[in-house]
Each structure stands twice: as structure tokens, then as C-alpha cells.
Amino acid sequence: MSITPESLDPAFALAVDREQGRAGFGALLARADLSAATGAELRRRYDEPHRAYHDAAHVGLMWLRHLMHGGDPGDRDMALAILFHDAVYEPLARDNEARSADLAARLVRGDTGWVQAAIIATADHLAYAGPDCRVLRLLDLDLTPLAEAPEVFARNTALLRHEYTAVAEPAWRAGRGRVLARFLAADRLFRTRMSAIYEAPARANLTAEIAALSSAA
After folding, report:
1. InterPro entries this protein is in (predicted)?
2. Secondary structure of the chain: what % helix, strand, coil (to 5)?
3. Which residues lie closer than 8 Å to 29 by C-beta, 6 or more apart?
4. Element (H, E) at 151
């Protein structure tokens, strides 16, 4: 994929699919400059059978969109934060981000302070109120799938549902509805210049799914 200024066109920015995301994962690993053993460990983690949405395609897509929106391809800390932010993922756990940050500290050579703090911020995208524009960028990148074309958004929702197969359907609908309603109530979902591309379609998807959940109740 060629990364050019035309990528700021909404249609182009949203054209990156999960297949390309999986290819982007390889580029992300290369930029992270990790040992072969650490790279293999991350591949193993993102290939865990309980993952359907939170996999290598998701983090690879985030890296590609970082580049498409003018992000520094040499920003190793951003690459590490993207790569590790879902490295530990158990759908029903409440400490995935903290454990992912700890994993980064153990496996990455050098100072990982910013990387760990950025990963922790992904535990609640709406709660972060700090001034760090790079953390805001990471949070926005993680939310870009909310703005996919409706059919892609629906597919992603199905992948998430697969990760929560242990949760009964009524509980899933109730929990999903609460999460989406909280997003929709936020003044802004996206807090970088990416908002111009992603905010409106994300809100349209959230509104449509909330309506569908309500009608199915």
C-alpha cells in the first residue's frame, strides 16, 4: 500500500481492511525493532484462538492509519504502544491494559515509561484528559473502526460478539448498549484532526446499533 497525502480523503482512509491490517502487523513489528523471541511471542499472543477482533489485523490497521494520517514512521514509542496495547487480552478481564503495559516493560529494552502510560490510557478512551497529543492520537487510532462502512462495522461487531461467547445474549445486548451509549454521549469521540474524517460516520454507526439493540430487546 502506498501512503500518500491523498490518504486524508475519508474514502481512502476507511479503505484499509483487515487483510491489509494483517500485512501492516508485519511492518509494525519491523518498526518496533524487537528481538526475534519477542516478535514471536507477540505473534503467538495475537493468534490466540479466543481472539477474533483484537488480533494482529486490528493493531496492524492502527499502524497503517497512523502513517496515513501523517504520523511519524520513525516513532518507535508509538509503534510499541500500538503493538502492545492489546498484547494481553482476556475478554472478561478488567486488567488487560495494566498487564499489557507490564508486558511491554518486561520485553522491551530501554525506557518504556511513555509506552506504558499510553497503553494504560486505552483502558478508557473517554476518561483521558491529559495534554499529550500522542496519547490522544493512539486513542483515536484505536477507535477508528467505529467509523467503518456499516457492513464492516457490523462484521466487527460480530467478531467482538464471538470473543464474548461466554456471555449470554441478553447480557451482551445490555452491556454493549451501555458502552455504545456512553460513546455516543461524549462531546467528541476523536480528539485529534482525525475527527474530521471519523466522527460523523462513527456516530452514525453507534446510533444505528443502539437502535437495533433496543428493537431486539
Report:
1. HD_phosphohydro (IPR009218)
2. 65, 0, 35
3. 39, 42, 43, 83
4. helix 150-163
Which amino acid is residue 210, in one-letter code? Answer: I
Q: Which of 108, 102, 89 is nearest to 46 (CA)?
A: 89
86 grid coordinates: 492489546
Using CA atoms, how far apart are residues 203 and 183, in angstroms rounded to an integer?
9
pTM, rounded to two decimals: 0.93
Q: What 3-state class would DSSP assign to 203?
A: helix
pLDDT tens for 154-192 read: 999 999 999 999 999 999 999 999 999 999 999 999 999
Model confidence pLDDT, tens digit, residues 49-108: 999 999 999 999 999 999 999 999 999 999 999 999 999 999 999 999 999 999 999 999
- What would the grid cell of residue 9 be? 480523503
Residue labelled with grid coordinates 446499533 = 209
